[in-house]
Amino acid sequence: METKHKVLSNWVNEMAKMCNPDKIIWIDGSQAQKEQLEKEAIKTGELTLLNQEKLPGCVLHRTAINDVARTENLTFICTTKKEDAGPTNNWMSPEEAYKKAGEFFKNAMVGRTMYIIPFSMGPAGSPFSKIGVELTDSIYVVLNMIIMTRVGSEILNFLGTDGEFTKCLHSKADLDINKRLILHFPEDNTIWSVGSGYGGNVLLGKKCLALRIASYLGRKEGWMAEHMLILGVEKPSGEINYIAAAFPSACGKTNLAMLVPPEGLKAKGYKVWTVGDDIAWMRIKEDGSLWAINPETGFFGVAPGTNSKSNPNAVATIQKNTIYTNVLLKKDGTVWWEGGDGPVPEEGIDWMGNPWKPGLIGEDGKQKKGANPNSRFTAPVKQCPSISPHFEDPEGVPITAIVFGGRRASVAPLVYQSFNWQHGVFTGSIMASEITAAQYGAQGVVRRDPMAMIPFCGYNMADYFRHWLEMGSKMKNPPKIFHVNWFRTDDNGKFLWPGFGDNLRVLEWIIARSNNEVDAIKSPIGYIPDVKDLDLTGLSLDNNTLQKLFEINKDEWEKEAKDIKEFYNKFGDNFPEELNNELEDLIKRIK
Ligand code: GTP
Ligand code: SPV
Ligand code: MN
After folding, report:
1. In this predicted structure, what is the pLDDT of residue 1?
2. pTM
């Protein structure tokens, strides 16, 4: 395979010269080539073939032990001016970044093959879509990209002789954490990732292109790239309302996107359609409405906690053609994870490749887990039983409501609605959540994570907030904005809300509010439901629990306001005055 695209072939040559691979292979998207690569990776041990009777087309991969989650401290936005990256991003000058990483890339592919993956985020030809080309020395990356994006020769045809594309370069190099860098050059439409083999660090179409680079392009071109799931809720009448929801990593996007209605609501005739589980690209149509697509074609989902009860659609999706990463390997060649289906296996090989049985104690004195807490599955969207018939629509789906949410043991009630778009942007900007296993860092510590984009915004977040405000003023009937928290706990640390399928009860209220079909109670932080307007059929929540779920505690919110002010102050003069005013108003209302 070759290309008539001058810029592309020059760039490939230049990168090959630096990385010095033995061989170069273009990925054409064919089944034959995919199988060939799988075979090769199984031979070298990069992949383990699973029980093909029980899990046809499925393989297992283990990453290096120090390489199991995104490394935000090694992730940089490399703009000419530091202020363009803003106070919430790590920054390096492009000059220094290319030089530093260039040393790690030098000869990194000696003895290896460089694979060239042309891919499209979004259906090729859609006004939303963006093309990228990833160079990598990892078959695991190639096989994941084939599931997660639209890959192959037709993308090159589409690119023609001079089409725009994001230049994505990746090498595992020697997987040395001290020589690991995830670099974004928005001004050059370029991404360099070296020294890692973990998902979000190396599947460069995902967080790096579809969020960091795309958010930068979105601001320039007047659209939005968000860390959001997209789902359609079909009412008994057949009417479908689409909701886009931003929750931080490992805070419930995949689960909500694949929701199965609880008995009471199923009886009413509700159905849920999955459009996307991680990323939404959103544009305003000529008529002033907001439309969204999921630019991906696969799920890279959290395994632990996924079972036939919590997420039956995910379980059905991952029975074939799935790449499992860092889960437990059972004796029969199938896989397991904490919170997975079936009894705890009596033995197995853990995510580090060591013999495992229940009750083993690790060096930290805690029980050893069979699967890494951030172990994942990569599976094609099309295998999901609830996949929306509109998944491939180049125009996307119309968005009725936007939902923000975090993992908060306290402070945030189960659900509230913002007063209007500006207050909704404020609501997104004050999001906070507990750090999870999806990223390195102190687990469980609450950090501010506006719009769930703190690790993923490719430019100054003050400008990002302004972009959100401006998008609202361009829309004719902007979606209503809500905030949810499935993770509030009681004094014993137990979740107060059953979550998962039962979250539809909250979505039902959100949709009714968006269509002006139900009243609400005005609280200092936004509109909250009158409990009688929530369908709680079949749940046995006592009054005390309900009260706790909706409690807005004055002391907690005063503390919260202080923390928000501190966060806002990081941005200096560039910060949108509208949000400072919203904060002042909130403080007055809490008093
Ligand atoms: P990323 O892929 O990292 O962006 O994560 P995500 O936002 O898609 O999160 P996911 O749906 O995979 O959920 C992460 C964890 O939260 C899993 O262990 C789930 O079991 C758990 N979880 C999801 N939804 C709920 C819920 O409504 N209540 C409770 N208590 N836990 C939930
Ligand atoms: C996340 O961490 O938000 C993920 C997984 O969706 S990763 O692709 O690794 O970023
Ligand atoms: Mn995510």
Report:
1. 58
2. 0.98
Q: Is 251 a catalytic residue?
A: yes
- Spell out the domain ranges in the chain: 6-46+73-221, 226-296+389-590
Nearest atom (ligand 1) to Cα of 247: 7
6-46+73-221 — its CATH code? 3.40.449.10
Residue 264: the pLDDT is 85
Residues in the chain: 591
In the reported structure, the alpha carbon of residue 43 is separated from the centroid of ligand 3 by a whole-number distance in angstroms of 31
C-beta of 514 in contact with ligand 1 (< 6 A): no
- Pocket of ligand 2 contains residue 201 by CB under 6 Å: no
**Sequence letter at residue 494:** K
> CB neighbours (10 Å) of residue 466?
18
| DSSP character string of 360-413 | -B-TTSSBPPSS-TT-EEEEEGGG-TTB-TTTT-TT-EEEEEEEEE---SSSS-
**CB of residue 207 inside a 6 A radius of ligand 2:** yes
Q: Is 200 in the pocket of ligand 2 (CB under 6 A)?
A: yes
DSSP 437-491: TTBSS-TT-EEE-GGG-TTT--S-HHHHHHHHHHHHHH-SSPPEEEEE-TT-B-T
Reported as a single tens digit per residue, the pLDDT across 138-177 is 999 999 999 999 999 999 999 999 999 999 999 999 999 9
Closest ligand 1 atom, CA of 248? 7
Task: Say how many Å lie between the CA of residue 437 and the centre of ligand 2.
Answer: 10
**How much distance in Å is there from the Cα of 409 to the middle of ligand 1?**
15
Specify the ligand 1 atom closest to the Cα of 499: 27
**DSSP-based three-state secondary structure for 75:** strand
| Per-residue pLDDT tens over the stretch 393-440 | 999 999 999 999 999 999 999 999 999 999 999 999 999 999 999 898
Nearest CA to 181 among 254, 103, 111, 286? 103
199 Cβ below 6 A of ligand 2: yes
Distance CA 47, CA 140 (A): 8
Which ligand neighbours the alpha carbon of 200 most closely?
Answer: 2
Catalytic residue among 19, 78, 251, 384: 251
CATH 3.90.228.20 fits 226-296+389-590, yes or no: yes
Q: Ligand 1 center to residue 251 CA distance, Å?
A: 4
Which residues have CB under 8 Å from 134's CB, separation 6+? 116, 117, 119, 141, 145, 168, 169, 170, 204, 205
Buried b (16+ CB within 10 A) or exposed e, 52-87: eeebeebbbbbbbeebbbbbbebbbbbbeeeebbbb
